[in-house]
Amino acid sequence: MAEMNLSSPYDLLGLYQGISLDRKSVSDPMPDVDMIFLYREPIMVYAEQTGEALERVVRHVLIHEIGHHFGLSDDDMRRIEKQD
Predict the structure, then answer these.
(1) Sign of CA dihedral 7, 9, 13, 18
(2) How far is Cα 7 from Cα 40, in angstroms, rounded to an integer?
(3) Any bridge partners for residue 35, and if so which?
(4) CA atoms of 84 and 79, how far apart (whole Å)
(5) What is the average per-residue pLDDT within 7-24?
(6) Which end of the chain is more exposed for a tag (fewer CB within 10 A), N or C?
(7) For residue 31, what pLDDT is reported?
(8) Are residues 6 and 54 in contact, defined by beta-carbon separation less than 8 angstroms?
(9) Helix, strand or coil for residue 82?
(10) pTM of full prediction above 0.90
(11) Where along the chain do its domains lie?
(12) 1-6: average pLDDT
């Protein structure tokens, strides 16, 4: 939490852990496996507090974290989400 400057554990809905594809190199030794985490309780609390459908919140978090894996910008991810 301190590293990400979060005031509450509920501030984090999802997390990508790894090296994005645009930064990986075939000459680098194999890093750990890339992983995406979705945090169930914070997502549910966020959906309840905002009135947003749970499915939409999960979709948003997944797009965002998968976007980090592919090295997409926040603008790229917003465009993907608008293609509903």
Answers:
(1) positive
(2) 18
(3) 17
(4) 10
(5) 88
(6) C
(7) 66
(8) no
(9) helix
(10) no
(11) 9-22+34-82
(12) 80
Q: Are 20 and 77 in contact (CB under 8 A)?
A: no
Our separate counts of H helices and E strands in the chain read: 3, 2
Neighbours of 44 (CB within 10 A): 15
- Would you say how long the chain is, in residues? 84
**Euclidean distance between the first and the last CA atom of the chain, given in angstroms as a whole number:** 32
- Please check whether residue 12 is in contact with residue 36, taking contact to mean a CB–CB distance below 8 angstroms: no
pLDDT of residue 14: 95
H or E element at residue 43: helix 40-50
**Residue predicted with more confidence, 48 or 82:** 48
Signed CA dihedral, 10, 64, 4, 38: sign only = positive
* Predicted confidence (pLDDT) per residue in 20-77, tens digit: 988 887 777 766 789 999 999 999 999 999 999 999 999 999 999 999 999 998 888 8
